[in-house]
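Need residues for this backbone.
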């Protein structure tokens, strides 16, 4: 299988989205390397010619981890170097750099549909949440006014229920003994290095134990 980014205007396909393409077979069931098949946004398969200028092919892509495994935590970013499909179960597997194939449900692939100016990501070193100010064609991002572009692997994403959150909102699950919090209420997370920095009921930012919240 291959990673293919769509650059056309077909309403059944999303511009800037990564699709997983599989090589097509000709009438004699021989592998045809000049074409590949992708499943569009409606679930239908398309036969695509590799020479079409509506597609860009990538050797590797970024992905966010949405299920913890090995040394990867939820929200971590890794490079995906390959993809394959089980011919019997039809399950798709992705290959994170330096590891073995893992079921695709552990990841969300990153592309121009989910990495954009205004998205909030967490700096891996400081734990501070920063707004993405600019994104280049390689998905390197700038989060500071100096405009320095940095790899997505330097950041973490806010994740809930297997998907990416645009803003790092959390839900209070324990307000015991803390009048500045309300169980079930959503709060904005400013930092999560050690104690979480939360904008609470007072409208001010205070530190709380992460055990009082869940992401999303």
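Answer:
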């Amino acid at each position: 299988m291959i990673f293919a980014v769509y650059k056309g205007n077909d309403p059944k396909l999303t511009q800037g989205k990564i699709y997983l393409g599989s090589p097509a077979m000709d009438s004699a069931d021989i592998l045809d390397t000049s074409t590949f098949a992708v499943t569009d946004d409606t679930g239908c398969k398309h036969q695509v010619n590799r020479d079409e200028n509506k597609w860009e092919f990538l050797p590797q892509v970024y992905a966010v981890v949405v299920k913890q495994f090995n040394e990867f935590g939820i929200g971590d970013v890794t490079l995906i170097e390959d993809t394959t499909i089980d011919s019997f179960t039809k399950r798709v597997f992705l290959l994170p750099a330096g590891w073995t194939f893992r079921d695709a449900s552990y990841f969300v692939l990153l592309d121009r549909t989910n990495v954009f100016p205004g998205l909030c990501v967490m700096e891996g070193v400081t734990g501070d949440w920063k707004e993405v100010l600019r994104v280049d064609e390689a998905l390197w991002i700038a989060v500071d006014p100096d405009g320095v572009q940095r790899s997505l692997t330097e950041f973490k994403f806010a994740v809930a229920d297997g998907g990416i959150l645009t803003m790092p909102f959390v839900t209070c699950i324990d307000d015991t003994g803390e009048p500045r919090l309300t169980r079930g209420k959503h709060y904005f997370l400013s930092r999560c290095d050690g104690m979480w920095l939360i904008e609470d009921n007072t409208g001010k930012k205070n530190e709380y134990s992460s055990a009082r919240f869940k992401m999303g």
